[in-house]
């Protein structure tokens, strides 16, 4: 629209300038009518041409701006000495799961700005996604050195420790970040680590804190369900697992755990309901850690109902 408005303005200017010229110099001559007629045709064609050219420019810019990767590539072409465009371009590549290209641009950004803890942290994220956990951990540590107690770096270090099975180490990192930052993700991660460590009371405290800030977290409700189940409160566990499914009907762990509770808990046992949840879990994912357990339970239920 701005380009079209400019075209009308420019054409109007040509018109006024041209008319003034003809009135001043040609008004008393017979050629006036013919020349002004020709000029009006010229003016109309000029309008079309200018509008067309400016529209092409607008469309070209829109194509660039609609694609985040193209946008930041364009910015780099115009300001290649700045670190920020490389970092944001790398972030865009990460979103598209193009991790090698992300790493390349993070490195370029860091070469320009070697004090950027954000770049190091995000670079670590790209390596983590590719499975290079030790490399990622080193980068998170370097980021944390550049900014002491950098929350995202500490949280990421905790995630790496969890993936490597070092639960107590993960609790150390998560505790440090959760104690000084109000964030449902940090609380959730600490609660999850305590749950994996079997420290159910601590797990409940932090999971509740996470839900206080973000009640619509299916995963947090599923974890609360597991905490209640392990504390021998199956009714409360069912309530939490069902709340998880209200938020996310395809939550795999909620389906699995509800199936297990309805099959094994004596007070609540209902194999018909258990069957529904367990079958649904296999529909959602054919390959997951508890698939053999689920299949064995289904075999048991089928034998019992024969």
Write the layout of secondary structure elements.
Elements lengths: L1 H24 L5 H36 L1 H11 L4 H13 L3 H14 L4 H13 L3 H14 L4 H13 L3 H12 L5 H13 L3 H14 L4 H13 L3 H14 L4 H13 L6 H14 L6 H14 L2
3D structure, described in words:
The chain has 306 residues and is an all-alpha fold. It has 4 domains: 4-66; 67-147, Tetratricopeptide repeat domain (Serine Threonine Protein Phosphatase 5, Tetratricopeptide repeat, Alpha Horseshoe); 149-197, no CATH class; 215-306, Serine Threonine Protein Phosphatase 5, Tetratricopeptide repeat. The protein contains 16 helices and no strands. The protein has helices at 2-25, 31-66, 68-78, 83-95, 99-112, 117-129, 133-146, 151-163, 167-178, 184-196, 200-213, 218-230, 234-247, 252-264, 271-284, 291-304. The model is unreliable at 6-10 (pLDDT under 50).
At a glance:
The protein has 306 residues and is mostly helical.
CATH fold assignment of the largest domain:
Serine Threonine Protein Phosphatase 5, Tetratricopeptide repeat
The CATH architecture of the largest domain can be named as Alpha Horseshoe
The CATH homologous superfamily of the largest domain is named: Tetratricopeptide repeat domain
Task: Report the span from N to C terminus.
Answer: 72 Å
The mean pLDDT is: 86
Count of DSSP H/I helices: 16
Approximate helicity band: over 70%
CATH class of the largest domain: Mainly Alpha
Could you name the key traits of this structure?
306 residues, mainly alpha, 4 domains
């Amino acid at each position: 629209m701005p380009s079209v408005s400019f075209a009308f303005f420019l054409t109007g200017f040509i018109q006024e300038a041209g008319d003034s010229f003809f009135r001043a110099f040609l008004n008393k001559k017979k050629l006036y009518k013919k020349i002004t007629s020709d000029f009006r045709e010229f003016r109309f064609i000029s309008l079309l041409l200018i509008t067309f050219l400016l529209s092409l420019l607008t469309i070209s810019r829109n194509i660039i701006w609609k694609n985040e990767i193209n946008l930041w590539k364009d910015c780099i072409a115009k300001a290649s000495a700045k670190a920020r465009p490389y970092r944001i371009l790398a972030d865009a590549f990460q979103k598209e799961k193009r991790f090698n290209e992300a790493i390349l641009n993070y490195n370029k950004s860091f070469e320009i700005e070697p004090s950027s803890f954000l770049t190091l942290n995000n670079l670590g994220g790209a390596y983590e996604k590719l499975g290079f956990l030790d490399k990622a951990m080193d980068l998170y540590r370097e980021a944390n050195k550049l900014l002491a107690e950098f929350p995202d770096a500490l949280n990421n270090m905790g995630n790496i420790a969890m993936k490597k099975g070092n639960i107590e180490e993960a609790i150390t990192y998560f505790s440090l970040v959760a104690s000084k930052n109000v964030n449902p993700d940090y609380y959730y991660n600490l609660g999850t680590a305590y749950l994996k460590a079997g420290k159910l009371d601590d797990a409940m405290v932090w999971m509740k804190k996470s839900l206080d800030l973000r009640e619509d977290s299916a995963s947090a409700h599923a974890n609360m369900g597991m905490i209640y189940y392990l504390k021998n409160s199956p009714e409360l566990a069912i309530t939490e697992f069902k709340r998880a499914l209200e938020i996310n009907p395809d939550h795999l762990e909620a389906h699995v755990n509800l199936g297990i509770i309805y099959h094994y808990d004596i007070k609540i046992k209902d194999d018909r309901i258990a069957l529904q949840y367990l079958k649904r879990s296999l529909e959602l994912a054919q390959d997951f850690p508890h698939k053999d357990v689920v299949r064995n339970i289904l075999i048991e239920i089928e034998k019992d109902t024969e």
